[in-house]
């Protein structure tokens, strides 16, 4: 890297340091002095110096090591509450005055000291002749002074909240400090000795060149941020803007965003509206009447079992079912009524019809629409949450969306049904190839299953449809033919979202939701 | 929708018919053929030839077996149903089955036939047993309306009696046991007695089938005798009986069995059932019997429904090739179902069979041509609007289950015993995790927050969706309402932060609102307000109570609001 591009990449702190050498590029400057003349904080300076050393723009001329003494936490504690040696000696002297026998255990208990602290203090006091250990583990003051105990108080006072060079203390005190300094294997000491390294720094050959170039450029002040002040007074013209390393990864942000599955459903919704469908809404809680009876599912139908539908606990039944629908549907089930059907030939239970369930199929919403004077011609859809009594696993959800609807019109017949399904295949699944298979639904006849060749998934079932049975439409007051259709889009959604488990459509993992792209 | 197991070689044999040369069919041919029976191939084992097929049509029990599928394909290939001699035989059968008075109140109907000349093979036996089980389970409503028994004919001496006995009056050794026991004991300890005994609950006398020597055949609909009621490979004479509560279903079920065994080469010998009481078919009923369900309808009805001018000839041809008997007169057809079907309820049922027989591929799709205007509901439009605003304010959208647990929806929100804690709960709970509809949105959002402490902060989340609120004044006992919930969670989350969002939202939906201090257990006292707009409470805003956060194990403060979009949508 040549010098000028090296200069371009310098951090403002580095430039400050280089500029401090300024006019006297050959000078040797102590770090302390450098801190003063550059005006940098010690931490900033040490960062800048390390960087410049690493770039070989700066070199160490000499290095002096000064031992510095300071108090440890223990030391500060001893300053406040006296050190064990002081406390042991004082206890011994008090005992001597009163003539009491003093055991080592007494001192430990009374002073609340660690055994190691007590035995250390006694050992030293005995060595210095200030204590005697007599029979029975008792200690006795000799009345002589202890060098350590005397020195200790002075040292703790001098060093409380400050640090000093070791060499500043007289020899005797230095000895006490060194004896009671934190060492490997003995952390419980009042003093700490640290080496302060003082460097004398000078510019390297490259450094001299860089400093000269910087001073030649004259615009030595580099800024990292354009500010309103710089713009206002025009001084940006004389500033240099530090160049960024733009190849670094950008910091991550979390944008406000639609849920990827909802985004998918929104797309489907928009498609359906664009094809002329009007949206319908319904209730999460339904009666068996609208959920099943009105759809000509006989009350003994296996899918009405307690193991297929969720029943509501309280209240168990709706207050009533609207007429004339209840009577007409009852007739349709029992003997066909006016529908041209034989019916299912069983006694219809009107009580059962009022039983409340969680909506198990979106077709319940369509049934309500049929009974509410729908437009003819008319197209309707709903994206309805439905509930099934299913063990939850990777392919079964207990709570899911059904996309379904109806088409009413004089021109509705089996072939227009197939035409509509063709349209869905093309518009919703982008499929060019379709297959129509005979199917069975309790409420449609004829019934069709729509299979499409999806561009990514290959052949798949896209939905089911049929012409509503007249046992469904006539009791609800609709006399024109009606297509009922439903699309199974969860598999397409899962592919679009890149997931393999249907439970992940409703995941509680915010990271996953944030990071899913959700292409459609 | 039963799923059955059949074997490819067995199907090929049945397609050819007894004594004919078996033609192998390819999987493509099979899949194509399955359209005729609304079947879907679920699994196959090329080594054993085993095929798992789901039959969709719950009104076509005749198709729930290999024989039935083969028959439907054969009819199509041959253009018409072959004759079944036993339906037209005029010689009176010497075999009889007598019904005891009193059964009309217990299990009134029985149908039976004998089959000889077919030596039972392993494949055949597998199908017989599977058909027996599927028909009794799904068509017979778990044996309640129909159940079936198969026996070794050689061991039976006619006439057979369909008897009514006291629980301790007779004894025999049931299948699956090796000791003699009374019918009452069977109900108490036999697995089938425990499973199906409920059908005979409250009866002080029980159905019992025996032969002329008073030998036990079975205890319908519970269990057969081990001696005569266990058909084995190699048997070449069978007795089949069906009992139940619906005469036409009983006869239909026997017809299906008779057809199936006949298709395997047996000669069916009808049996006359003599009732001591009146039935819809009289007091002496010969079974199997062709009930000849027929219907007259204009060809134009079929043409209109299909959207295709076919003409009477094509209609008749298609239906005949699907097993019907068709008489064309003027512009009408009179169609009669084959004896193994009874599913003709409406003209449209005939229409579908025409379409299936011709193949759906035969019909050219046409677009519905009538113009309609599409659009979204008012609530969806409002919901979309506020969703866009929330996204603009930096919120991530969430979608959650509406079914949750009372523990999360109520207890963890400190709402036990409060009006806010009332739930629409499920009666038949499968899992506590899915046992109540959410009554508000915030628990859904806290569920995500609780699981996402590793996702970088701040967290801003919202969900617009449905909740269910109990309301005794409503016909359904509850109201489904669309609400919007928003949550902000991070170390410095503050009331004013969420308040700004709410304020912005109301500005853009052009509604005035005010906050009124309230007490709400889910929020910190003094930092919660009711959102009042148009003189109505339309939501709540506040800082979540530390105990709520603790119960969800959320480790940062969270502020939230929830507003009733249904109320706002109805207003403007």
Question: Could you describe the 3D structure shown?
Answer:
The complex is a heterodimer of chains A (520) and B (572). In chain A, 38% of the residues lie in helices and 20% in strands. Chain A has 520 residues and is an alpha+beta fold. Chain A has 3 domains: 3-64 and 199-241, Winged helix-like DNA-binding domain superfamily/Winged helix DNA-binding domain (Arc Repressor Mutant, subunit A, Orthogonal Bundle); 73-189, Arc Repressor Mutant, subunit A (Orthogonal Bundle); 261-515, 2-Layer Sandwich (BirA Bifunctional Protein, domain 2). In chain A, strand 4 (131-134) and strand 5 form a beta hairpin. The mean pLDDT of chain A is 88. In chain B, the strands form 6 sheets. In chain B, strands 4, 5, 6, 7, 10, 11, 12, 13, 14 and 15 form a 10-stranded mixed β-sheet that branches. Chain B has a 7-stranded mixed β-sheet with strand order 19-23-24-28-27-26-25. Chain B has 572 residues and is of the alpha+beta class. The mean pLDDT of chain B is 94. Chain B has 16 helices and 28 strands. Chains A and B meet through helix 13, strand 10, strand 11, strand 13 and helix 18 of A and helix 8, helix 10, helix 11, strand 19 and strand 21 of B.
Summarize the structure.
The complex is a heterodimer of chains A (520) and B (572). Chain A has 520 residues and is α+β, with helices and mostly antiparallel strands. Chain A has helices at residues 3-8, 12-21, 31-38, 42-54, 73-81, 84-98, 104-111, 115-127, 147-159, 171-179, 205-217, 228-232, 260-274, 288-291, 325-334, 350-353, 363-371, 414-429, 470-473, 490-497, 510-515; strands at 29-30, 58-71, 102-103, 131-134, 138-141, 164-165, 191-203, 222-223, 240-241, 278-279, 285-287, 356-358, 378-387, 399-408, 434-438, 444-454, 458-468, 482-487.
